[in-house]
Amino acid sequence: MQVILRQLEDCIIRRAEPSDLIPVMEINLKTLPEHYSDYFYESLLAEIPEAFIIAEIHGKHVGYVMCKTEYGFSNFKKLGFVKKGHVVSIAVLEEFRKKGIGKALVEESTNGVKLKKCDEFYLEVRCSNTEAVRLYEKLGFVIKQQLNVYYRDGEDAYLMAIEFDK
Ligand code: ACO
Ligand code: ZN
After folding, report:
1. Which atom in ligand 1 lies closest to the alpha carbon of residue 125?
2. How confident is the model at residue 69 (pLDDT cuts 50, 70, 90)?
3. Res. 166: pLDDT tops 80
4. Is the alpha carbon torsion for 42, 17, 8, 59 positive or negative?
5. Which ligand 1 atom is nearest residue 130's CA?
6. Which of 42, 50, 84, 160 is the Cys-Cys partner for 112 at CB 3.0 to 4.6 Å?
7. C-alpha span between 39 and 46 (Å, rounded)
8. What is the pLDDT of residues 109-138, one digit of tens each?
9. What is the DSSP letter of 149?
10. 124 three-class SS
11. Best mutation site among 87, 90, 123 for ligand 1, i.e. most ligand atoms within 8 A of its Cβ?
């Protein structure tokens, strides 16, 4: 059953289903240098469908966000062990950017990881990716660390995180 989360003009924001995975992989190939195995997409959808979200316009897939959950040390509390949501990947096709779709995807994935009782939400982003960093900052994420030579091409990442209220 399709779970529609919201609509932005003619763009539907909804939870992903198995039949969305090939179009998601196609968007990923067009927009980002980090790619994953088919199995990895399937495993994320199986693990946390609440935070695997699609943007669709007239039946065309234009964006996605996919996440996982982890237990680990808090990005906020000294010595805290917490449940964390992790944005694995998000992208919107270039011709559909700057319409609020990216923001809606991050907000809906935030709701999804909260449903899974995560305490925090985090991601890594290229330090040069100012569009994405600005989007995350607007949504309350803060830069917590710079990860040296995080990407295969040698670029650094910012680790950005947000802590949820109890
Ligand atoms: N009219 C004009 N501008 C608008 C409108 C509108 N109706 N709605 C939103 N905007 C502006 C926002 O204010 C924002 O502006 P700002 O950058 O000056 O703050 C800008 O458009 C982007 O916001 P959104 O529209 O919500 O985001 P978008 O749909 O463009 O997606 C994203 C952002 C996902 C980062 C996109 O640029 C992208 O796909 N980039 C390539 C892939 C990528 O880098 N992904 C992130 C990697 S990191 C990771 O995956 C964890
Ligand atoms: Zn990551």
Report:
1. 48
2. very high
3. no
4. positive
5. 17
6. 50
7. 10
8. 999 999 999 999 999 999 999 999 999 999
9. T
10. strand
11. 90
d(CA 10, CA 4): 13
Torsion angle of C-alpha atoms 99, 62, 120, 161, degrees rounded to 10? -60
Band of pLDDT at residue 159, cut at 50, 70 and 90: very high
Q: How many A from CA of 89 to the centre of ligand 2? A: 7
Orientation angle between helical segments 130-138 and 101-115, nearest 10 degrees: 50
CA nearest to 47, candidates 78, 80, 85, 9? 85
Alpha carbon 23 to chain centroid, angstroms: 16
Instruction: Indicate left, alpha or beta for 111 from its phi (over 0: left) and psi (-120 to 50: alpha).
Output: alpha
Helix (H, G, I), strand (E, B) or coil at 43: helix
The CA distance from 9 to 155, in Å, is 37
Give yes or no for a contact between 37 and 79, defined as CB atoms under 8 angstroms apart: no
Q: Is the dihedral of CA 40, 49, 125, 8 positive or negative?
A: positive
Cα–Cα distance for residue pair 114/108, rounded to 1 Å: 10
